Amino acid sequence: QVQLVESGGGLVPAGGSLRLSCAASGRTLSSYAMGWFRQALGKEREFVASITWSGSATLYADSVKGRFTISRDNAKNTGYLQMNSLKPEDTAVYYCAAKEGINPSSYYYTYSYWGQGTQVTVSS
Length: 124
What we know:
By secondary structure, the chain is mostly beta strands. The protein contains no helices and eleven strands.
């Protein structure tokens, strides 16, 4: 079992930056690929970014490409999502997730473990 806890969300003006963290416990995170998803009020859960277990490859949604950066530090058992040039449409609850296997994935159903989410609000 892997327990995931997100942090770093908050209120930020448009154009600002935030860095989300995802701390894992229970098992070493290095055995899992990681992903970030988000869900805005009244909308379906949406893929944001994913990274291999080693950090050697990443995958991004088109809507965040060039603005967001996913990374991980396996020694700290922590994943990160650096978000720059934030837009009001980025407002959502952000969830980190872990999946078995080394490859990243944009499909939520491939992830076995989820955090509780952290709210990100971007004001216009």
